[in-house]
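Q: Convert this sequence to structure tokens.
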Amino acid sequence: MTAELPEPLPRPAPAGELRASHDDRETVVEQLRDAAAEGRIDLEELGSRLEVALKAKTHGELAVLTADLPQLNPDGQSPLVLRGGMHGVSRGSGRWEVPGHVIARGGWGGVKVDFTRVQCRLTEVAVEAYGEMAGVTIVIPDAWGADTSGMDPGIGGLTDKTTPDRLRGTPLIRLTGAGGVAGVVIRHPNRWERRKLRRNPPSF
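A:
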């Protein structure tokens, strides 16, 4: 009797051939919509790419749709996207993990991003702020620094109340975006916020 040879094990599919999930498609759809809002692609191209994204079956089909868009996630995390909407949104009342890329859109209700209670191991955080109709406010610790040279002030303007006294090894906020109608403010904590920090200091 001749011994039967074992059947070869199936080879794992290349990354681009892996099947895409609903979440994978939705992530790409969101990135494409953000790119259109930033003027990187026009509405006609957005429509055609969205059609392909919603029908995509593999990671490779999705990858080509965003290959020419900037990837600003040095830490490998997805961007944190905050949208003011109609009622506004705030991030910073408690401890939260800071990704390498934050996108804040003021909408009609406004956005506030407060970094004073975070423990950030990154040396640089890219923040895209779009003031739109209600504005965006960014609060950073005294030791942190800010680079606002890439910001378009728009109609509402950019108000930079930070100091150049950044301590070595602390994060730098690299701010880009547009002021829109209501503008963008970046500053250190005000008197009321400092009082709250003294009463309830961050527990790092």
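The first helix runs from residue 22 to 37.
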